[in-house]
Amino acid sequence: MNWDKFIVDGLKHGDPLIIGAVVSIVLVSIAIVAGLTYFKKWGYLWREWLTTVDHKKIGVMYIISALVMLFRGGADGLMLRMQLTAPEMKFLTAQHYNEIFSAHGIIMILFMAMPFIIGIMNVVIPLQIGARDVAFPRLNAVSFWLFFFGAMLYNIAFVVGGAPDAGWTSYFPLASTEFSPGVGNNYYAIALQIAGLGTLMTGVNFIVTILKMRAPGMTLMRMPMFTWSTLITCIIIVFAFPVLTVALALMMFDRLFGSQFFTMTNGGMDMLWANLFWVWGHPEVYIVILPAFGIYSEIISTFSRKNLYGYKSMVASMAIISLLSFLVWVHHFYTMGQGAAVNSFFSITTMLIAVPTGVKIFNWLFTLRKGKIVFTTPMLYSLAFIPIFTLGGVTGVMLAMASADYQYHNTMFLVAHFHYVLIPGTVFAVIAGMYYWFPLIAGFKLNERQGKAAFWTIAISFNVTFLPLFFLGLDGMTRRQYTYSAETGFGPLNLIATIGSVGLMIGFALIVYNIIWSFRHAPRETKGDVWDGAGRTLEWATHIPVPVYNFAVVPEVDRLDAFYFAKKEKRSLFKDKIEKIHMPSNNGQPFILGAIFFFWGFFMVFSMWKSAIVAGIGVLILLAMRTFERDHGFYIPVDEVKKTEQSYGGDSV
Amino acid sequence: MKIDNSLPLEYRNEENRFRIIGFWIFLGAEIVLFATLFLTYFTLWTRTGSGLTAADVFVLEPVLAETFILLTSSFTCGLAIHAMRQGLIKPTMWFMGITLLLGAAFLGIEIYEFYTYVHEGLTLQTSAFASSLFVLLGTHGAHVTFGLLWGIAIMIQLKREGLNETTANKSFIFSLYWHFLDVVWIFIFSFVYLKGLM
Fold first, then answer.
1. Residue B121 region, left (φ>0) first, then alpha (ψ -120 to 50), else beta?
2. What is the rounded distance in angstroms from the CA atom of residue A32 to the CA atom of residue A38?
3. Does A267 contact B135 at a Cβ distance shorter than 8 Å?
4. Which phi and psi angles does A225 have, rounded to 5°?
5. Mean pLDDT (whole number) for A484-490
6. Where are the transmembrane segments (chain B) (predicted)?
7. Which of A246, A254, A260 sits opposite B37 (nearest CB)?
8. A69 forms bridges with which residues in the sheet?
């Protein structure tokens, strides 16, 4: 067997960064294995995590993976900024720069933002609707492991074979075998496919969960806003992800089997890729932003001590956004020659999105109006989000104008725009959500003083990093250019941006310190409603940390924010008495299925057909095992529920 | 588990009701998947390069046979579910078996069709038209193949356990899948073959 194809070029050429990456990956892997063996934690890991079907634990695993990916993608971003600090830098080669900006985009969108959002959904949604788990707990585990192993497959590309280098959009003909002959873009086609299948299943799972498992009395218009945003997001997932599935499959056929979809000869059409990619890609943007809107709605309402202003218009605007999100994809390539009429249509639909989004911004402002605002860490992120995101949104409207876009297209102005919407939009939201809902899982709050220090570092550094990019873009600096000459005059603003990016790194490191410190020193909470009794939704109605069955008795809801009004009127949402509770049993098959998919993907990437077929048969065998299995879960007896409830200090309600 | 005895067997417990609605939503995703493949085909079908065109390779007779066979299998699949609703295990098994045999016959003709195309010089690599044709038909064919394996697995379970909440639920969901494949084929027959022959 020829092992040469597995070795990346950087290693052959002795690139110190690649060697460093390889060595650190090997060392960390050895350390993890050695640590687990030394502390005898393999059994614990398998029983409590790898085989779990509990939505809370799956959510935690999503969030941990997302945090790891945040640092991986963040390190990429930092390297890009290092390379651009001054004219003619020699930090990265052009090829390495291409690989890193591709990785930065793919990882941050698909392996950081998405799983972070889905992780928070997993933890919060069943609790918010008063359910004991999601509709399909086992499928939920499958979703996670497909995402996880897809992400792992993508991440080994850097050290085994070669990384994708055609940008996160992988436009053809650049991404074809003719212009990207290595295995890098095979990784793109296959790793994203595996992770995408997991996401699609999550979409189906949460739609059924939200439609069918709400607590008695919780009509659709009594659902918390985060639940609404998740429902709408999942509908987008179900309708957008199959397009990605097809696009990636066609890419795979072109690259591995010589088909002619996106080629330059024999009738192939490279623009078809751009269209398919963005028919998925634009809704994808809303998949990561709408749940963020939901998170902000919850936090702003809680810490303004008021109900959310304009509940119905919030729901309607999200529905309209989700619809419009499928009608704007061409604005990503105005300059590629579809003509004035088509560009005008997509220009108008794009600008229309500003209307429902504006409605939401004003609703948050009116929620704040005359509220008793409490400046907690999650609230600070939410308050910072409004003006920064608006700046991102307004520059988005500028970009939406097709004729003007000929000036900005693929410049740093665009880069600044999407960082201005995605970071305050999604990243601030998931961090705010993590701080807000952290006690549900951990039983304590993250230290507020450290949290606020991290917030200010991040919020200021963010603007220092990305504000200069608007001006660089208007001056004509294009995106994805790996170096520039001193005569361009891009130097000073780039230097400022790089300084900002170092600040961002410090800010995120502070969050990690905050988490570790709080695990050791933060005072443990004794009652469920931890934010000074200001909780409005059902996740605060149970104990903290939330017991495995979530609610000893299923709550009954009679209005929006029922928990808040029940507290005010001193009545209980829990009317039934404790009964035995049905639970799904743990199972290792989802993990194994994910692992087999990983190997299948790896063999496909390297065109090792026989091994790939064997792995494919392995997948079928696991599916067969599932259909022949008869596992009806188990019951937690009443005594045990009562005992658990007492351990939280007395009566359940 | 909430059990409602007024409902048909496959809907009776809550988990199984979730499975049915979940599968409907999954079929929604499948519609988008096939819609994307159809749009790809419609975009590329005249782009034959220097290779053969649709009119060169399409022949009506085998495709018409495929259509009748698959439509019939959808009918027998419906009969299987009808028998299941009446609690009759034997006809359920028979009609399921006939459904799968018809599915296998369909697949046989499709493979023969592919063989003919390749023999005449139209392969996946020939042109954008050929690629989109093979991937659209192949995706449908792969779904039918998976359906055959799935159907066999369900028949084994019906044989072992008879009709109960679990097997009835599985059979019902399988029938949704099978009818869906039939609908997709009607679109392939009309808008790929008939349009290509015109």
1. left
2. 10
3. no
4. -65, -35
5. 94
6. 21-43, 63-81, 93-112, 132-156, 176-194
7. A246
8. none
Tokens of A154: 């993508």
Structure tokens at B49: 């390069």
**Six-digit token pair at A344?**
């005008």
Q: What is the DSSP letter of A85?
A: S
What residue in B sits closest to A246 (Cα-Cα)? B33
Is A8:A161 a contact under the CB 8 Å cutoff?
Answer: yes
A395 touches chain B (CB under 8 A): no
Interface membership of A250 toward B (CB under 8 Å): yes
How many angstroms from the chain centroid is the CA of residue A93? 30
Structure tokens at A256: 């591995």
Q: What residue in A sits closest to B41 (Cα-Cα)?
A: A261
Encoded tokens for B47:
């782009």
pLDDT tens for each residue of A582-611? 999 999 999 999 999 999 999 999 999 999
pLDDT: is B104 or A529 the higher one? B104
Rounded to an integer, what distance in angstroms lies between the CA atom of residue A121 and that of residue A336?
38
- Do A85 and A498 meet the contact criterion of CB atoms below 8 Å apart? yes
**Residues in chain B within 8 Å Cβ distance of A253:** 124, 131, 135
Chain A residues whose CB is inside 8 A of the B126 CB are 260, 266
From chain A, the residues in CB contact with B17 under 8 A are: 212
Write out the DSSP string of A367-388. Answer: HHTT------HHHHHHHHHHHH
- Name the strand (E) or helix (H) holding A191: helix A184-212
Tens digits of residue pLDDT in A98-139: 999 999 999 999 999 999 999 999 999 999 999 999 999 999
Structural domains of chain B, with CATH: 9-197 (1.20.120.80)
3-state helix vs strand vs coil in chain A, percent to 5 = 70, 0, 30
**B167 CA to chain A: closest CA distance, Å?**
10
- Phi first, then psi, for residue B3 (nearest 5°) are -120, 130
Evaluate whether A264 touches A89 at the Cβ level (below 8 Å). Answer: no
Which residues of chain A are within 8 Å of residue B27 when distances are taken between CB atoms? none
Choose among A235, A129, A162: nearest CA to A554: A129
Q: Which tokens sit at A253? A: 């056929």
Say whether residue A245 is in contact with chain B using an 8 A CB cutoff. Answer: yes
Cβ–Cβ gap A259/B135 under 8 Å: yes
Q: What is the pLDDT of residue A13?
A: 72
- The DSSP bridge partners found for residue B118 are none
Does residue A651 surpass a pLDDT of 60? Answer: no
How far apart CA A234 and CA A225 sit, in angstroms, is 14
Cα Rg of chain B, angstroms: 19
Contact B17 A212 (CB under 8 A): yes
Q: What are phi and psi of A354, to 5 degrees?
A: -65, -25
Q: What mean pLDDT is reported for chain A?
A: 93
DSSP state of A478: B
- In chain A, the percentage of residues whose pLDDT exceeds 90 is 85
Q: Give the mean pLDDT of A167-171.
A: 94
Distance, CA of A106 to CA of A167 (rounded, Å)? 8
The Cα of B131 is separated from the nearest Cα of chain A by a number of Å equal to: 5
Which of A200, A269, A628 has the CB atom closest to B43's CB atom?
A269
Spatial contact of A52 and A59, defined as CB atoms under 8 Å apart:
no
Q: pTM value?
A: 0.95
- Sign of the alpha-carbon torsion through A363, A369, A373, A377: positive
Question: Is A211 in the B-facing interface, judged by CB distances under 8 Å?
Answer: yes
Q: What residue in B sits closest to A634 (Cα-Cα)?
A: B1
B50 at the A interface (CB within 8 A)? Answer: yes
Q: State whether A239 and B1 contact (CB < 8 Å).
A: no
